[in-house]
Amino acid sequence: MHQQLTERPVDLDPRETAEWLEALDQIVEGMGPDRASFLLEQLTERARANGVTLPIRTSTDYVNTIKPGQEVPYPGDRALERRIKSLTRWNAMAMVSHQNKHDDGIGGHIATYSSLATLLEVGFNHFFHGSYGDQPGDLVYFQGHASPGVYARAFLEGRLSEDHLNNFRHELRGTPGLSSYPHPWLMKDFWQFPTVSMGLGPINSIYQARFMRYLENRGMIPTTGRKVWAFLGDGEMDEPESTGAIGVAVREKLDNLIFVINCNLQRLDGPVRGNGKIIQEMESLFRGSGWNVIKCLWGGDWDALFARDTSGKLVQLMNECVDGEYQSFKAKGGAYVRKEFFGRYPETAKLVEDMTDEQIASLHRGGHDPLKVYNAYKAAVEHKGGPTLVLAKTVKGYGMGEAGEARNPTHQNKKMNEKAIEYFKNRFEIPIPDDAARDGAFYRPPESSPEIAYMQERRRVLGGYLPNRKPVASQTKEIPAEVVTEFAGGSKAPHPSTTMAFVGLLKRLMKLPEVGKRIVPIIPDEARTFGMEDMFRTYGIYASGGQLYKPHDADVLFTYKESKDGQILEEGITEAGSMAEFTAAGTAYANYGVDTIPFYIYYSMFGFQRVGDLIWAFADSRGKGFLMGGTSGRTTLSGEGLQHQDGHSLLLASTVPTLAAYDPAFAYETAVIVREGIRRMYVDREDLFYYIAVYNENYQQPAMPEGAEAGILKGIYLFKKSDAVKAKNRVQLLGSGPMVNEALKAAQILAEKYSVAADVWSVTSYNELRREALKVERWNRLHPAEPAKKPFVQEVLEGTEGPIIAASDYMKVVQDQIAQWVPGRLVALGTDGFGRSDNRTHLRKHFEVDAAAIVVATLSKLARDGKFDAKKAAKAIGEMEIDPEKIDPAIA
Ligand SMILES: Cc1ncc(C[n+]2csc(CCOP(=O)(O)OP(=O)(O)O)c2C)c(N)n1
Ligand SMILES: [Mg+2]
Q1: Which residues lie closer than 8 Å to 413 by C-beta, 6 or more apart?
Q2: pTM value?
Q3: Ligand 1 contacts CB of residue 319 (under 6 A)
Q4: What was the pLDDT predicted at 6?
Q5: What whole-number distance in Å separates Cα of residue 814 and Cα of residue 812?
Q6: For the segment 568-610, what is each residue's pLDDT rounded down to a tens digit?
Q7: Is 642:834 a contact under the CB 8 Å cutoff?
Q8: What is d(CA 367, CA 202) in angstroms, rounded to the nearest whole number?
Q9: Is 145 in the pocket of ligand 1 (CB under 6 A)?
């Protein structure tokens, strides 16, 4: 899309060209830009009608979008703001440098914030609202590895102490510690958005802006001027998540969203686009998508040169140079720029003949000029009808001099030598003694100093400090126990799957006064798969512009109803986008002061392994809500095969510390878990979220056994005790999800054919059982002189008889999680290996998790334990129609 501006066609008749251009200039001057635009439109149409191929050029010249004549004067005190910025720069640098001097290798970044300082400071002094009246303020996504700058500012504001700064990246030593990057989990009163995994900030911020509109349109929050600001790296833009959702922002007309890309032209290893121009590329991409794009490339000191550039050669030169060259121009000083840049054409060389090399070297880039940045932000904030991108050209390592300015290795630069520190100190005029400076001493002028007073006053005017995470107290009522009771009586034909039962529960919750409106169902184009299509009509699909057409199915019950205050978020086929929306909804209690309870239901296979990093960031954000893994299980989802059948989400779920993952078998189990989840997350304010596997196999939903609730929540309960009293052997069969039914069938076969009594348990969560057991073990380890406590799983299974055969529709390692608390007894049957396209019967046979496999595993284990005749066990394999030499499904 990006057209090389060097590839312009040759001008065959320059005189004619000049006449046309002059005519245009006269129109602009005499009639204004709107008239010029109108005429160009007319010309374009005429040209098209005459068969002229129009050049598609979505990028403009490599100059500022806002011309000097369109600028407003700077409203702040530039001298004071420069002082504040210098102090912030110093403290940020000192923090990282000092820490690495005394703790080699602890890390941190200097160069990123050095490039970003003006972009943030103009925001902090003039744009970022800490609040809107009694409403929370703007939502700012900071470049993660610029965190030292954000800490340094908070230090000057008096929000962080010198102790804090001394404990940067020493979270486990001094208190209070400062986390390396923005992590709400680690600094819950400070950071709001974890951004350091590149690409998550951009996509999360887009859906944040969409969710803000959703809350406004549904009347859940008042409409304010609140903005979402996302500060992004130019290297970061290569992540697919960074640009993959930019169309959403246009479609949704998100004029509450502003992206600022810090275009320092470098990433970690070297230039982002040495041979091209990242700014032009981003301009084309975003402008082509419909964003309002503002380029802020050159500082005010260039304006005089532009004014004198009557030949147009300066702009031509700027268009021609590639980023690799621009980087050298900053790395190599004024004489080099005079020779290699301006010297390329006599006209441009002339422009700077009166300037010294130092003056040339200090010509600023737009992102370092507060006036240019202010005007870009002002235009962004005032823009209506869509999102704005500000492309700000900066210098990586600005102010680091030879220690790193625009040098390839600068990203990794964590320490500055004494000479470099001295240079930095002098350049930014930090009034501390040289020896203190060399040691990286911090500097904060007194509270009464003009600098501190000014910055405090600016923040007061703008409604408070940022970033600032402020969760509200609970607004959510407990779910009445009757709701569970409604699901505890067992089903009548036609019997539902656990997915259908869950959808019934969801609808029931949505009808509850108080809680109902807080529920946010999120679906990535799978509502019909999960039997949710009747909810379209009842609750409406959120559409910011309402429904502009009459749906073809308007006259049927389950019509596709879109509405401005629709409750359902139908995201389309974007698991990443849905996860980002889930994140906005799951953290609304901290960002908007309102409890919303998201249920994101999706094809489980396209969850953890597809958007795992977003799930991790959700946990970091202290998000609340329910991830509902639909079409679960490697054998229960029949027919779909290798790429669809999920047998490992529960395993991946176990890696997320605050995620409680469940694998319920029956409708009442889900109801119990969801009710408790709402209580823990929303009433008691625990920081956790839920993953619940739901399946699409229809079967009789039984009545809830008396007293099962506690076990359901802890992870295991006895579902059916065998009444085969005369049996020679007794065993324990553990099932999860639909495998409970296979265990029940196996129990019957074992009793009838082999005289083995089998008690059947439903294990709703191996993950939770293991976590509790590990917690208890840790306590025992650290309290050796006190009586040992017993893990719940051990307490439950210890007194039971015989081997424990545990079947699930997941990998065996899920069940293995409890092995150490039932020594020598556990046999796990699971679905290790790739999926296959076939039906449930064949899949379960293939993966050896069906009733026959459970019977065989039971007898085999009894035989190995010396409790059953080995020959009979071997014979049973034939009786169960299993080929003992068949290929191992784990590698098939
Ligand atoms: C997903 C991901 N991959 C890699 C990294 C490691 N990393 C951190 S910063 C960085 C370079 C960032 O360059 P850019 O986005 O241009 O930011 P700048 O520091 O130049 O402002 C990299 C590769 C990361 N944080 N996240
Ligand atoms: Mg960069």
Answers
A1: 110, 111, 397, 400, 403, 404
A2: 0.95
A3: no
A4: 42
A5: 5
A6: 999 999 999 999 999 999 999 999 999 999 999 999 999 999 9
A7: yes
A8: 20
A9: yes
